[in-house]
Design goal:
single chain, 374 residues, alpha+beta, six-stranded antiparallel beta barrel, four-stranded antiparallel beta sheet, 21 strands, 20% helix, elongated
Length: 374
């Protein structure tokens, strides 16, 4: 019997299907990897340049709102003035001298007591004084002779009429220049009188703090006003003199305030200028400038004028500058959006790759950089 050969055929269709599936899967994988790689490479850098803008607030505050108080005293200042213009004539230089006594015994000095400078220029005491033991006294002196030689600067003086030991214990010193050795003989003008009054007003203002004996007078949180002034002099416009005396009597009012409360109110007023959360105001080390706005006898009606300065800048922490705000925007859209904000000087946008058209939607791939320009 002849053996029979049986041939078995393996179907080819399933193999082809598996092959197609494998290729398809590989293709999809490659595409996904390409997409992921592309998305990972997309980056956007938005650089915003800003410029500070000076800002200032001027607010009026009632004195009663800052724990303020008011005190008033009356004082008088006198001084000798020289006429401007005219011809120069010799005169005796005069000035104030402080006479010291370092001993335990008081020292009386009669008028015309001589004082000799280190340069041998002689001055005489105008009126008698008694220099207290271990103390000093201020007195007016005049040069012994007329002429410019008496116009000397600050100096030390001995008293020739005392013995050598006593001269070391009692002596004089000047802190300012002697004046009047050469004087101008001229006609008194209205300007001369106006300058004299203004000088005396400033002299009162400069010494205003010393007129108040309480501790508040030493505070830097105090303002002073000179008012109700009465100026008098022994000359009138048109008189021909070389010098004239002036006297000014005035009320000096001290206005005291709580500096911390002033700072708080001024800062609050300045911050009210903020347009929105995209703006930031920096005070730095600025302190308010305080002046008297209106003066009365009552804290409730007296007002202080308070000026505080700072700089306004773009706030980098504003929600308007969060990265998500820029997702999907084109360069033109970013420019239009950013340039509407205050204090923006310019904006530069960089996309990577260069042919990218919009900002990626991934926060880690977006950089918002704030740069300040001066």
């Amino acid at each position: 019997m002849t053996p029979r050969h049986i041939e078995t055929r393996v179907p080819t269709q399933p193999v082809r299907v598996y092959k197609i599936l494998a290729i398809t899967f590989l293709t999809i994988t490659v595409i996904l990897l390409a997409v992921i790689g592309f998305m990972s490479s997309k980056r956007a850098t938005i650089t915003i340049t800003t410029k500070e803008t000076p800002v200032e607030t001027n607010v009026r505050v009632a004195l009663s709102d800052v724990n303020g108080s008011i005190s008033t005293v009356t004082t008088t200042q006198t001084q000798t003035f020289f006429v401007t213009g005219g011809a120069e004539v010799p005169g005796k230089a005069t000035g104030m001298m402080r006479i010291y006594n370092t001993s335990a015994t008081a020292q009386p000095l009669v008028a015309t007591t001589r004082f000799l400078s280190t340069g041998n220029v002689l001055f005489r005491l105008k009126a008698g004084v008694v220099v207290p033991a271990n103390g000093f006294i201020d007195a007016e002196v005049a040069a012994d002779k007329e002429g410019k030689e008496g116009n000397i600067g600050p100096d030390s003086f001995t008293i020739p009429g005392l013995d050598a030991v006593r001269q070391k214990e009692v002596y004089g010193k000047t802190e300012s220049v002697m004046q009047g050795g050469i004087r101008t003989q001229g006609v008194v003008s209205q300007k001369d009188l106006d300058v004299a009054q203004a000088t005396l007003e400033q002299k009162i203002l400069d010494t205003a703090a010393t007129l108040f004996t309480d501790l508040v007078s030493t505070s830097t949180n105090a303002l002073y006003s000179v008012h109700n002034t009465q100026f008098s002099t022994g000359v009138k416009v048109g008189d021909t003199v070389s010098e004239f005396g002036g006297s000014l009597t005035a009320d000096v009012t001290r206005v005291y305030y709580d500096a911390s409360m002033i700072q708080s109110k001024a800062t609050e007023s300045l911050y009210e200028r903020v347009v929105d959360d995209a703006e930031h105001i920096d005070l730095g080390s600025a302190e308010p400038v305080v002046t008297i706005g209106s003066l009365t006898t009552e804290p409730k009606t007296t007002e202080l004028s308070v000026v505080l300065s700072g700089v306004a800048t773009l706030n980098p922490d504003s929600p308007k500058l969060e990265k998500s705000v820029f997702f999907g925007k084109t360069k033109d859209e970013i420019r239009r959006y950013v340039l509407t904000m205050d204090h923006v000087h310019g904006v530069d946008i960089h996309f990577s790759p260069a042919w990218m058209q919009t900002v990626p939607h991934v926060a880690d791939h977006v950089d918002v950089v704030i740069k300040e320009v001066k």
